[in-house]
Fold these 2 entries.
Entry 1:
Amino acid sequence: MKNEIKTILQETFYGPEGNSSWYTEAKKESGLIGTVSRISAREASLDIDGTTIAAHTHHTMYHITVCKNTIKNVDQEKDWSISWKIKQVDEEEWNEIQKGLEREYNELIELIEHRELSSIALTIIFANLAHSAYHLGALRQLIKRINKD
């Protein structure tokens, strides 16, 4: 089951391998990481209905961190509002958020590969997958709004 989980996470974050997909567009880099890599800091900072692409991206990264720590039984204070406070980012901040998203994704994959997954760990991973897929869709809609305006 680990391989199947990693396949869907791979598609969610990087896009599908090859010319077909399980649920995203069958295009290279159609996942979260590829999608946000084409956005400038200025675009990531645009307020669209009270939120920004930067906030959605940071929130997705933060969610992965919380999931990883929960699986590892690491105590942490959770403040979900942190991400949604992000409004304006410069190029350096935007690059750091993108690198952080990729780093957290890679660490989650490492955790999946090297840990026995309990039923609670599997539930957390599936919840993260659903959460990340939701934000991929939200980001793509925000990007359509930017390109339309």
Entry 2:
Amino acid sequence: MHCTRCKGTMVADYFIDMENSGELWMPGWRCLACGEVVDPLIMKHRLAQEKTPEIAEAATRKKRKALPVGGVKD
């Protein structure tokens, strides 16, 4: 599996469930290069966002906005 952020290698990992959804340890994936974490709940939320065109379009517009050089807005 490859990371969606950096295309690095993802490895299986276990994470502590802080929401107490029933399991103490949740299986997931972690990127060795950038540290991106993906678990079943994250995937569920990402898929839900992709199915909502308005949210996906707004996120795309937000990514395209760039700050001026120096990172400060006028």
